Amino acid sequence: MLVFIIRRLLQSVVVLFVMSLLVFAGVYAIGNPIDILISPDATQADRADAIARLGLDKPMYVQYLVFLGQAAAGNLGKSFAFNIPAIELIFERMPATLELAVFAMGLAVVLGLPLGLYAGLKPKSLGGRAIMAGSILGFSLPTFWVGLMLIMVFAVFAGVLPSNGRGPTTLLLGVPVSFLSLDGLKHLLLPGFTLALLNIALIIRLARSGTQEALMMDYIKFARAKGLSNARIVGVHVLKNIMIPIVTVIALQFGSVIAFSVVTETIFAWPGMGKLLIDSINVLDRPVIVAYLLIIVTLFIFVNLVVDLLYSVLDPRVRLTDSGQ
Amino acid sequence: MTVALKVENLSTHFFTKQGVVKAVNEVSFEVPRGGVLGLVGESGSGKSMTGYSIMGLIDPPGRVVGGRVLLGGTNLLELDPEAMRAMRGSRVAMIFQDPMMTLNPVLRIDTQMIEAIQAHEKVSRAAALARAREALARVGIPSPDERLASYPHQFSGGMRQRVAIATALLNKPDLIIADEPTTALDVTIQGQILFEMQKLTRESGTALIWITHDLSVIAGLADHVCVMYAGRVVESGTVDQVLDAPRHPYTRGLIASVPAANPRGRALAQIPGMTPALLNLPPGCPFRERCARADAACGADPATEALADAHAVRCFHPHTEALPPAAAEGASP
Fold first, then answer.
1. Nearest to A219 among B55, B88, B102 (CB)
2. Which residues in chain A are closer than 8 Å to B103, comparing Cβ atoms?
3. Cα four-point dihedral sign A186, A192, A198, A203
4. Which residue from A2, A50, B80, B290 puts its CA 20 to 30 A from B176's CA?
5. Closest Cα of chain B to A238: distance in Å?
6. Which residues does residue B332 pair with via DSSP β-bridges, in sequence order?
7. Are B155 and A316 in contact (CB under 8 A)?
8. Collapsing DSSP states into helix, strand and coil, what is residue B60?
């Protein structure tokens, strides 16, 4: 187990290194930030001075090596636009995005799992068919459109929910969160549901097909022959067997919800990392873009590690020492 | 001997879009306490469905449409779902064919055994665990303490079947229905399991219904035999009556098909044709298409005719002569 984790961490370092190389080269190719950062009527001397100050006068590989040296010490560079460390800027925005992502995934599990189980247990009932039809909408409607429609219905017509911003935040263990106050929760509802919709649909479909498959297995028949209650058969025997693919999807989707909440955060003016990334790309704020992408990669690596650990809890046949080879 | 289970005119039909499948058709038999009944037939003859019908485990579109299943005076078919659930696993238990599939792969053995006890009795986890350990020891599983904490994939097929048998025995049922439990196992393990089952049922007075297509298993294990064909019992009697002096042409064909009965070098005997599709089965003897003795009379349904003692046959033209000695030897070694 420990060996497994150590090996995975070493692999992660390699992944991070390759990723930093790709991101650095990619961002370098986008364009020269100096044209955006310095006003067109600055003198040639001012311009040269700024270029030297930002380290942009050196060749690319030197810039990369400087970046790498600083990164090894935990310094991912200073934002060109805000002149504060990029990592600080991102961490400042991270709680908002994390809260949104956790809320969205929580919503997806709480709604998707029971609906999927029901649809799997009663595939021919009206409810089961309605759930499956609804789930098709869930993953075929584009996020931005759903967000706009939700704003139209709940904020504009009904006027019951706010359309943008995070609302008041409360400090929880030093981290500002919205969900502890009613007004904050109201602000969370629309963007959270928008992000959750696709995942609800995914979980419904996975849970349904898993349930139908499990119900045909002999061990379910044997469980019934033992005289177990339906609640125990569905809640333990079926659920534990279908959780393996669902946990995988939840974890991967959790990563993408964080990484790609850009659209939703923009629509609802949610002050998270996604909005920061869009703003940074607009002004070619290289350090922030690079730092953001590296943090996202780290997050994905971490999530995958957690999934692998969870597998061994859910499925006794998985041997952690084998899966790393 | 008191009767543990009495099945009268049990019928189970499947209602499909294409028509009605009479999977179990007017089946009657009884099993005394501590007795072993063999239910023999080809695939699709309705023997497993008879077992599921007794257990109340028939799923739609199937439905038990008639008859009575009397377990110690209670008609199981009249019980409501919750009362039937309480019966399953405590008074009637069932074990299945493929031991690789009957245990839930993601739950530990102790979880799966304890839940079988706690579904029927309010007992502490510790007490249930002690009973599970005792049951495992009884079916010959070495170091049961260690094994209880294992997962199914850590067991061999034979060991898993022993776990399933131990689970079925946990609540000391009156009746165990064994649906080909040794078919998937190799012969040495099969012999051990048969021996254990015989011993356990004799010790506890549990009645046993052994569903199989293997006549040699029946010969060594059962007291009584019912031969099923196309959802009906075509011949029934004691093991000696049915295996040594079979009356029904189908039973005779089955016995002749056992390879051991065949002189070396001669082509194996077989019953021509195959089991008829049960969907919308026309009236008349379902075996007549494959039967050498069939004539115009077989277009009508033969009634069950009682012969000597327990022996009964459902045929217009039953064999009356004894079985040639070579064939009889093969079936009951």
1. B102
2. 219, 222
3. negative
4. B80
5. 9
6. none
7. no
8. coil
Going by C-alpha positions, the residue among A18, A102, A84, A22 that lies closest to residue A276 is A84
SS3 letters for A94-159? HHHHHHHHHHHHHHHHHHHHHHHHHHHHCCCCHHHHHHHHHHHHHHHCCHHHHHHHHHHHHHHHCC
Domains of chain B: 1-80+209-333 (3.40.50.300)
Per residue of chain A (325 residues), give pLDDT as tens.
Answer: 778 788 888 888 888 888 888 888 888 777 777 777 777 777 777 777 777 777 777 777 887 887 788 777 777 777 777 778 888 888 888 888 888 898 999 999 999 999 999 999 988 889 889 999 889 888 888 888 888 888 888 888 887 788 777 777 777 676 777 777 777 788 888 888 988 899 999 999 999 999 998 888 889 989 988 888 888 998 888 998 888 888 888 888 888 888 768 888 888 888 888 888 888 888 878 888 888 888 888 888 888 888 888 877 777 777 654 443 3
A228 vs B: CB within 8 A: yes
Distance CA B305, CA B283 (A): 18
**Residue B57 and residue A226: Cβ atoms within 8 Å?**
no
Chain B within 8 Å of A122 (Cβ-Cβ)? no
CATH 1.10.3720.10 fits A86-323, yes or no: yes
b/e code B294-306 from CB counts within 10 Å (16+ = b)? beeebeeebeeee
B194-224 pLDDT tens trace: 888 888 888 888 899 999 888 888 888 888 9
Q: Checking DSSP bridges between strand B3-15 and strand B20-32, what pairing results, if any?
A: antiparallel
Q: Does B132 touch chain A (CB under 8 A)?
A: no
Can you state the angle between helices A273-282 and A86-121, rounded to 10 degrees?
A: 130
Whether A237 and B167 lie within 8 Å, measured CB to CB: no
DSSP 8-state code for residue B296: G
pLDDT in tens, A42-62: 777 777 777 777 777 777 788
Closest-CA distance of chain B to residue A87, Å: 42
C-alpha distance from B168 to closest chain A C-alpha (Å): 7
Distance, in Å, from the CA atom of B51 to the CA atom of B94, rounded to the nearest integer, reads: 8
B88 contacts in A (CB within 8 Å)?
A: 224-227
| Chain A residues with CB-CB distance to B120 below 8 A | 227
Distance, CA of A150 to CA of A107 (rounded, Å): 16
- For residue A218, give how far its alpha carbon lies from the nearest alpha carbon of chain B (Å): 5
**Contact between chains at A226 and B102 (C-beta distance less than 8 A):** no
A218 lies within 8 A of chain B by CB? yes
Residue B31: count other Cβ atoms within 10 Å of its Cβ: 24
**The pairing of beta strand B175-179 with beta strand B92-95:** parallel
Domain boundaries, chain A: 86-323
Say whether residue B326 is in contact with chain A using an 8 A CB cutoff.
Answer: no
Closest CB to B106: pick one of A224, A226, A241.
A241
